[in-house]
Amino acid sequence: MTLPRDAVLLRIFVGEDDKTERRPLYEAIVLKAREHGLAGATVLRGPLGFGHSSRLHTTKILRLSADLPMVIEIVDTPEKIEAFLPVLDTIMTSGLVTLEKVQVLQYGETRNGKA
């Protein structure tokens, strides 16, 4: 699959303990993205962060896993990302979603449009 140079980055911020139908929310989002034919998704686990409650979530000291921040990143065409947003509405109960215009410089086996 080749993406156009101009694409959209969908970034979703959730907590590690967030669930939907007894499944981790970040896992459900990635599976839905695959089901809807998006180009790919990556989940990143943060060692430290805070959200709207201002409560710190950290791996430090005695708290081994205190609802750590999770970030799901998905890059695809604007149309496919826009079509995926209503899916997020059905499974997210809390979190933050951002959209950014990005330029794809490398994808798969080609680099800058060259094989």
What this model shows, in words?
The structure is a single chain. This protein is of the alpha+beta class and about 120 residues long. The chain has one domain (about 5-110): 2-Layer Sandwich (Alpha-Beta Plaits). It has two helices and ten strands, in the order E-E-E-H-E-E-E-E-H-E-E-E. This is DUF190 domain-containing protein. InterPro entries: N-reg_PII-like_a/b, N-reg_PII/ATP_PRibTrfase_C, UPF0166. Pfam families: DUF190 (PF02641). Belongs to the UPF0166 family.
- Unreliable stretches covering 5 or more consecutive residues: none
CATH class: Alpha Beta
Measured distance between first and last alpha carbons: 13 Å
Which secondary-structure class do the elements indicate?
Answer: alpha+beta
Overall number of domains = 1
* DSSP E strands, number: 10
Count of alpha/pi helices = 2
Would you spell out the secondary-structure blueprint of this structure?
Layout: E1 6-15, E2 19-20, E3 23-24, H1 25-35, E4 41-45, E5 48-49, E6 57-58, E7 69-76, H2 78-91, E8 96-103, E9 106-107, E10 110-111
Antiparallel strand pairs: 1-7, 1-8, 2-3, 4-7, 5-6, 9-10
List key phrases describing it.
single chain; 4-stranded antiparallel β-sheet; alpha+beta; 22% helix; globular; two-stranded antiparallel ribbon; 115 residues
